[in-house]
Design brief:
The complex is a heterodimer of chains A (315) and B (233). Chain A is an all-alpha fold. Chain A has helices at residues 2-27, 36-67, 80-94, 102-124, 130-153, 157-167, 179-194, 197-203, 207-212, 217-239, 245-257, 262-287, 295-314. Chain B has 233 residues and is an alpha/beta fold. The longest helix of chain B has 17 residues, at 171-187. Classes of the chains: A mainly alpha (315), B alpha/beta (233).
Amino acid sequence: MKQRSIQLLISTGILLLVLTWVHLFVLQQANGANSSMIFWEFQVPRVLSALLAGAGLALSGLLMQNLFQNPMAGPYVLGVNSGASLFIAILVLGAAPTFLNEFSYVSAAMIGAFLAASFMFVVSKRVQNIQSLLVIGLMFASFTGAIEAVLQSFAAPEQVKQLFIWNMGSLQQMSAAQAPWMATLVIFGIATTLFLVKGLNAMVLGDAHALQLGVKVKQLKIVILFVTALLAGSITAYCGPIAFVGLAIPNLARALLKTQDHLLLILFSVLAGSFFLVAIDVLILLLDPWLSLPVNVLTAVIGAPYVAYLMLRQR
Amino acid sequence: MISIQQAQVGYQTALIDISQLALPAGQIYALIGRNGSGKSTLLQSLIGQLPLRAGSISVGAFSLEELQKNAALRATQVSFVASMFTGVEALTLRAYVSLGRVPHLGAFGRLQATDLQFVDKVLQALNLSDLAQKDTRKLSDGERQLASLARAIVQDTPLMVLDEPASFLDYFNRELLLDQLQQWVQQKSERTAIFSSHDIDLCLQKGIPMLVLHHQKLTLLAKPTKQEVMALL
């Protein structure tokens, strides 16, 4: 049982290494015009952004599913990305250009993500079932979308274009200078989560059980909300809203590992999330001569049917 | 040893008044009372989940107040078997029972070989070994109740509180449950178990001391007879 899980982790890790190598040294090099400058300024950040966004989004999905005690939770479906988007839109359209820097972008996204996650968490206490919560998440997303649209009607065309591109989700927006920042945030999020394993395991049975087992449930939930906002917010700031990774990967982890041991689930989600987004970007690179697709189109093509399958299997 | 002083149990209004009661360790006690008499409420107070309206209860060396403030400490002193738990995806029975070890584990929640040996020993004693790898969602209600008992046993606390732990069990498993509880309290001198039950006849037959909840009072019958119990209820 345990051995099988470890084999699965190792093989996913090896596959991830191979795929990352193919992405960076085969496909990206095939586009011609190679120089050390292009390699470090564009190609490395692109693969890093896939690795980090995949790992972080999958992990934030796992955390949200634990927090909401609901396997269909995730940063995208529950509007956490939307909260980050809205705050970035407010910043881009509302703030003076001098305020538009690295720090303000990421902070705005994290604050938006945290507020959205907290809001949905409070709401989840009042609704009884998964379906209602998902509908509320959807409403929340379309509400923030509407506010963004209103804001955009006041904005200059360049600003609107900038936001539009960002909203498509992309692994090519992160610059080489930003890469260390994103890496630090995501790695910090993963490291923090590793210290929560015991509490996360006990939370599987619900709040009352976890409390009986000595878990400080309230504190744990606040830490989960913070880490989720940190991961989903920073990734949304650097890559735009990317759908389905956060919802689909942790479900895949439980289905394959057949465990609720969160140490294994965390490690697998991180590896498989990275693998998934690198694989998506490999597809984008392969299809590039004929058509250029945004990340979200491909994650949806693969992710949406899988999530629908999960929904059907639930009942 | 559980001792109760002038305790008032209830939510907005007092449901139960207990002036003074001492329950020596090394025993199991059956909590008997009619529907709606407040058995579950009393149990919630005993595990420190529902604060007392007045008075005090001590569990071994600790007061209930201390335990309420410190969840980690409480988890090493009091275990609780709820009347029901729902199964969880990808959680096997063995993994569920192992969660009882959580209060004794380090920060990363790793189970040591000794923890797993303990879990397997308890599973065997409760005839659950064959179901160890079964998904908790696929267990029957009775199997789940036995699993809850196993989880509380591996938690290894001085006090175990059980809320109608036998409601889904068949005749044989009811006997098994009581025998296991008897054995459990005798293994270590500081142990006490309190369980609520409607199975008066079986408890009488086994000679289990009874805590009878009646007219907002709690009366201990160390050697109960049916007439005594019925007269109180």
